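ok, trying the design again with the full structure, not the truncated one.
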């Protein structure tokens, strides 16, 4: 099952950015404003992530994951990140793209640009345990497990 990086970025509410310090201390933090610019580049708004920023400056190797919580599948992306600042030539274009998601509500300090080296599918274990389930059944099972009710009318 091939998953599209851009499709799952658009479907996800949060992504998780994993970084590590120069000494190898890991850090994982949720990010609300992000997009897949293309299959080879992710943009993540730095709103309030001083540890992620420091780690990227010291060690640019990162892992990003996002998952559709109801489908219980998504992507894991490994790559190299750099911090894009307001003085950088890409800033205005990247900021405009992220502002379409964030509006003016989120103050974007800088932007993490991730160059994708490798990507892989993420699947919940239930896909392996219950291979007869299709995506719609997986969504139904997840909604039931999370107590989500769909309102009609």
């Amino acid at each position: 099952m091939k998953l599209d990086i851009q499709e799952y970025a658009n479907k996800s509410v949060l992504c998780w950015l994993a970084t590590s310090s120069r000494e190898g201390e890991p850090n994982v933090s949720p990010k609300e404003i992000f997009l897949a610019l293309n299959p080879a580049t992710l943009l993540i708004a730095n709103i309030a992530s001083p540890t992620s920023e420091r780690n990227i400056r010291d060690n640019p190797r990162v892992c990003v994951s996002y998952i559709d919580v109801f489908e219980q599948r998504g992507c894991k992306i490994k790559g190299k990140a750099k911090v894009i600042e307001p003085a950088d030539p890409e800033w205005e274009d990247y900021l405009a793209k992220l502002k379409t998601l964030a509006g003016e509500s989120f103050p974007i300090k800088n932007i993490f640009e991730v160059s994708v080296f490798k990507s892989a599918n993420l699947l919940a274990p239930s896909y392996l345990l219950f291979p007869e389930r299709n995506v719609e059944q997986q969504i139904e099972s997840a909604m039931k497990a999370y107590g989500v009710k769909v309102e009609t009318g």
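Keeping the full-length input from now on. The chain has a mean pLDDT of 89.
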